[in-house]
Amino acid sequence: MLTGPGVETRTVISVAQILVMLVLPVMVTGPSFAACPEENALESVIVSDYLRLVTLNVAHGRKDGRNQMMLKGETIRTNLTDVAQVLKEAGAHAIALQEADAESAWSGNFNHVDLLAQESDYYCSFHGVHASGRWYDFGTALLSRYPFKGTFSHSFKSSKPTTTKGFVAAALDWNPAGALQQPVSIKLISVHLDFSRRSVRRAQIDEMVGVLSKIEGPMVLMGDFNTDWQTEDSSLKYLADELDLSVFEPHADGLSTYGDEGARLDWILISPGLRFTKYAVVPDVISDHYAVAAEIMLEDRPE
Predict the structure, then answer these.
(1) Cα dihedral 253, 279, 85, 114 sign
(2) CA dihedral of residues 227, 282, 217, 276 (deg, nearest 10)
(3) What is the chain's alpha carbon radius of gyration, rounded to the nearest angstrom?
(4) Any domain includes 5
């Protein structure tokens, strides 16, 4: 597992990222896709005492490879099957994904979210395509075994020369141990912020705040924020302050999620009324990021 401090701005740009910026046409948002079996075939309310969550940047299915365009489609399928197995074993109620591809020439010409949903048995999915170009369509997604409500997708303003980022949002009904008269509608967001420039991340955060500040009730924000908590002017601190969210032990060691220098770029943030009971970085190498898993509970749940 990686250790060490994070960095506010990543200045090392990979060959794949340079290719995206200079060769592939950068376009804005695409469509969103929702899938779920008939609701009467599923439990509609989570009754567990604790809500278990996972977030992972799936890196277009390349695992820890340098570039998905250099891999055969079958290799990408195998990589994603490995991802699905880890997600299945995590036993989460909901999973947030970033760099999740729809059918794209650069990553095997199949829908990665559909494959992950099928192989992991997370039957319900919501997938927002934020970046579309000649060779690619990708964005963020949410998976669950429970039906999502109130789904929507938001793509940030164009951030050329980097690809457009954004977030998807959905709600799940949660009634811990059936102790509440009515289930709580908990809002889940999967987000991916720009990797290259702090100024772009700040603009994207302001967009996000403008949308999410209108949402009532408990909220969990998960994803690849491409920023840490350590720097004095941290964009993550700014986001947490603006939306009144908290993170788990922001200065703890052993929770790094990306790179040889141990950057903690992937986070789960929760709103007031929620409390972390468990939090861990999953050590399996299934991406160039590590997955983050958390367990949360309602602060004021009646016994």
Answers:
(1) negative
(2) -100
(3) 18
(4) no
Neighbours of 140 (CB within 10 A): 33
Instruction: Provide the domain count of the chain.
Output: 1
110: its two tokens: 């199949």
Cα–Cα distance, 280 to 276 (Å, whole number)? 11
Residue 10 inside a domain? The answer is no
Give pTM, 2 decimals: 0.89
Identify whether 215 is part of a domain: yes
CATH at residue 76: 3.60.10.10
CA–CA distance, 266 with 272 (Å, rounded to integer): 20
Asked whether residue 162 is assigned to any structural domain, the reply reads yes
Q: Where are the alpha helices (DSSP H) in the chain?
A: 15-22, 73-90, 112-120, 198-212, 235-243
pLDDT by position in tens, the chain (length 303): 323 333 343 333 344 444 444 344 334 456 788 888 876 557 899 999 999 999 999 999 999 988 999 999 999 999 999 999 999 999 999 999 999 999 999 999 999 999 999 999 999 999 999 999 999 999 999 999 999 999 999 999 999 999 999 999 999 999 999 999 999 999 999 999 999 899 999 999 999 999 999 999 999 999 999 999 988 789 999 999 999 999 999 999 999 999 877 899 999 999 999 999 999 999 999 999 999 999 999 988 655
Amino acid at position 176, single letter: P
Phi–psi pair at 256, nearest 5 degrees: -70, 150
Give me the domain span that covers residue 250: 15-298
